[in-house]
Structure formats: structure tokens, C-alpha cells
């Protein structure tokens, strides 16, 4: 897949209703749950798709739908009458076959169902890990090279999921590409799971201090996704001003600059263990989010606040 938008399939998107229906898959996850909250704040009616009953956010305006989104019949039922669909599910940490089945094969099932149902837009949570960030590479924008097939299970299957969605015509598609997602939660990789590894495993305390640590806070990410999904970010014929109507538009969502030293010192300091600094080549560029900023997004959580949240959580 190239990272340039497809040619528009229509002259523009449908005007969003005052209280749009938005479907969110993975609504009980770190990102999905925050997206549901942000959508409710914007007056949307949310259909929260989960696999286990009673796990969707307990919020007024959220309707839980229990089922497997890769099932065509369930997907068709879930998206009927919706204005937008937000897909957040990818089994990170599973073997490649499982990631391929759920991401590359399963997510397009929802996209095709949405297109058939006349849904206006699909917002997919991708990742900045699809970009080649080898040592010596500079800053990364939406036109930058993607990873090769040997980059690892997660980057490759996310890359291939993006490509599968780019090939699914019939609605406006937005590929949101965040880097490391910071934010409190039991399933949070960077606030909970990675620190647990640093606490328990000496090898996890090794890091390259000057390596770039591209990041975004989950609340800022959710706000951007909700604005796009509710139509607050209008479709356009130019990706510089909004999602290309009828096309597939990637958009990076990343906060200000940071290094691995910043993150690692916050974690090890809160845990009371010593970091181990390695000297080896590393990527030192930035994930550029100029497109997201042009669409009206401004992150509110700065690095100091994000790292302080990690420290408080770990010390607590």
C-alpha cells in the first residue's frame, strides 16, 4: 500500500446528524473505552462491540453489542444505520497467524459491511509502527516508507490491515497512526505492562537513551478519533484539510518530542530500580503530525503530565 490517499469516490461525505450513531469495536480496550467516552461527550450514540457481555463502558448513550465482528452477519447487524465505525481491535502479542486472522482478514469484514450499509466513514486505529524507523531514518510523515516483511509480526500485520482497508471501496476510510500510547489502564502497554517487565526482568531495564520515544496520550488520541468519527472533521478533496471523501487517508497522531531516556527514567525511578543504558544505533527522528494539526487537532496532555501519571500509578 502507498500512503497517499485513494482518488475520491464521491464529491463529499454525508452531513453528520446532530446525534450520530457510531459503532466502536474493541470498546472495552484501552483505546476503545476512551473513544466511547469521547463520543458520548460529543453527543453521539455509541454501539460498543465487545466479545464478553458486561464489559462495555457503563455510560449513558452507550449500547453494548456482544459478538465477533469478523462474522459477516453480526457485522452487518452492528453497523446498520450508523454514521461511522471505529475499529480498534488488533491482538497485539498473539502469533502472526492470529494477528493476520483478526486484523488483516477480520477488520475488512466490518469495512465491507459498513460500505454495504451506507455508513459514511470508517476510522481505523492503525499504528506508527508501520513506518520504517531504522537508525539513520529521519522524520516520518504519511508519505514515508513502510516496514519490510521482516519487521516483525505486529508492524507487518498492521501494515497489511491498512492495505486491506485501502482496497475496500464504498466509504471514506481514515487510518489513524499513533506511536506509543500512554495512559492509565490495566491493559496499557506503556503505563502498566512495560513497567511490570522493567520491575521483574533486569534485561527489560536496558535501553538506548537517545532513541526517539514517539508518543501520544490516549485521551488526546480518543479526542481526535471522536472528532473524525462524528464528522467534526469534515471530508475534503485534499488530505491536507480533511479525510479524502470516498478515499483512504492515513494520518499520524503524535505529541511532542521525547527520548527513551525520558520514559525509562520515569519508570525506573518510580520502581526504584536502576536503568541500564546501551550504546547502539537507534532512530532519532520524529513522527510528524502536521496533517492531524491541520485537521484541527491539538494535544492537551504534555510530556511532563503523561510521565507524572505513570509515576503516580507505579508508586501507588
From TrEMBL:
Residues 141-152 have a biased composition (Acidic residues). Coiled coil: none annotated. Residues 1-17 have a biased composition (Polar residues). It comes from the Bacteria. Residues 26-196 form the NAD(P)-binding domain. Pfam families: NAD_binding_10. Residues 1-20, 132-155 are annotated as: Disordered. InterPro entries: NAD(P)-bd_dom, NAD(P)-bd_dom_sf, NAD(P)-dependent_oxidoreduct. This is NAD(P)H-binding protein. It comes from Nocardioides kribbensis.
Amino acid at each position: 500500500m502507498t500512503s497517499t490517499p485513494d482518488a475520491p469516490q464521491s464529491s463529499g461525505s454525508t452531513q453528520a446528524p446532530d446525534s450520530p450513531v457510531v459503532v466502536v469495536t474493541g470498546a472495552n480496550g484501552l483505546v476503545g473505552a476512551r473513544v466511547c467516552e469521547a463520543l458520548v461527550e460529543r453527543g453521539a450514540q455509541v454501539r460498543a462491540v465487545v466479545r464478553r457481555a458486561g464489559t462495555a463502558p457503563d455510560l449513558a448513550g452507550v449500547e453494548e453489542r456482544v459478538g465477533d465482528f469478523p462474522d459477516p452477519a453480526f457485522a452487518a447487524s452492528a453497523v446498520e444505520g450508523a454514521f461511522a465505525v471505529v475499529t480498534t481491535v488488533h491482538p497485539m502479542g498473539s502469533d502472526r497467524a492470529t494477528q493476520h486472522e483478526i486484523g488483516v482478514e477480520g477488520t475488512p469484514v466490518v469495512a465491507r459491511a459498513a460500505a454495504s450499509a451506507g455508513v459514511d466513514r470508517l476510522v481505523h486505529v492503525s499504528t506508527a509502527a508501520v513506518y520504517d524507523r531504522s537508525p539513520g531514518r529521519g522524520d516520518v510523515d504519511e508519505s514515508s516508507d513502510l516496514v519490510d516483511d521482516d519487521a516483525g509480526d505486529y508492524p507487518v500485520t498492521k501494515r497489511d490491515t491498512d492495505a486491506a482497508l485501502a482496497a475496500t471501496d464504498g466509504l471514506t476510510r481514515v487510518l489513524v497512526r499513533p506511536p506509543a500510547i500512554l495512559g492509565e489502564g490495566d491493559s496499557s502497554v506503556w503505563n502498566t505492562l512495560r513497567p511490570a517487565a522493567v520491575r521483574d526482568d533486569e534485561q527489560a531495564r536496558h535501553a538506548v537513551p537517545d532513541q526517539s520515544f514517539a508518543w501520544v496520550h490516549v485521551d488526546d488520541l480518543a479526542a481526535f478519533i471522536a472528532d473524525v468519527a462524528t464528522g467534526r472533521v469534515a471530508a475534503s478533496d485534499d488530505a491536507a484539510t480533511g479525510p479524502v471523501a470516498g478515499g483512504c487517508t492515513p494520518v499520524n497522531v503524535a505529541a511532542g518530542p521525547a527520548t527513551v531516556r525520558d520514559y525509562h527514567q520515569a519508570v525506573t525511578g518510580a520502581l526504584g530500580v536502576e536503568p541500564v543504558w546501551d550504546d547502539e544505533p537507534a532512530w532519532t527522528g520524529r513522527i510528524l503530525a502536521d496533517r492531524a494539526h491541520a485537521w484541527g487537532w491539538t494535544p492537551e496532555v504534555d510530556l511532563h503530565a503523561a510521565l507524572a501519571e505513570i509515576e503516580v500509578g507505579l508508586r501507588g
